[in-house]
Each structure stands twice: as structure tokens, then as C-alpha cells.
């Protein structure tokens, strides 16, 4: 299933428990940009798109790693 950029950002926000401001800092963008994307306006700079994809991968790679017993 393909996910749009808004969904990826919502998943990061929920998984990390971050505010829009914290997301903006982590992505190297502004809070209004994060707000716009979260509200369904998927148009953003390529650098922001790549940062969201990388952060999503990093956040959920941690979740997917098996734990040692």
C-alpha cells in the first residue's frame, strides 16, 4: 500500500510523540510547513520530502528490529 507524505508525517508524529515544532526542527523546515503537510497539502520541497522519507525510515526501522532475549 502506498502512503502519501501527510500519512508518513502523521505516523512519525504519533510514533515519536513529537509536536509540529519538534518535527520541523528534525526535518530542517518550519512549523507552518509541517502543519500544511499534516493538513493534506502534500506539495513540499524535494528536500523536505526526502527528509520526511528518511526520518520515517529511521523511526520505523527501530520498531522493526528484533529484541534479544
Automatic annotation (TrEMBL):
GO molecular function term, any single one: DNA binding
Sequence intervals crossing the membrane: none
InterPro entries assigned: Cro/C1-type_HTH (IPR001387), Lambda_DNA-bd_dom_sf (IPR010982)
Domain spans labelled HTH cro/C1-type: 9-63
The protein, known as: XRE family transcriptional regulator
Taxonomic lineage of the native organism: Bacteria, Pseudomonadati, Pseudomonadota, Betaproteobacteria, Burkholderiales
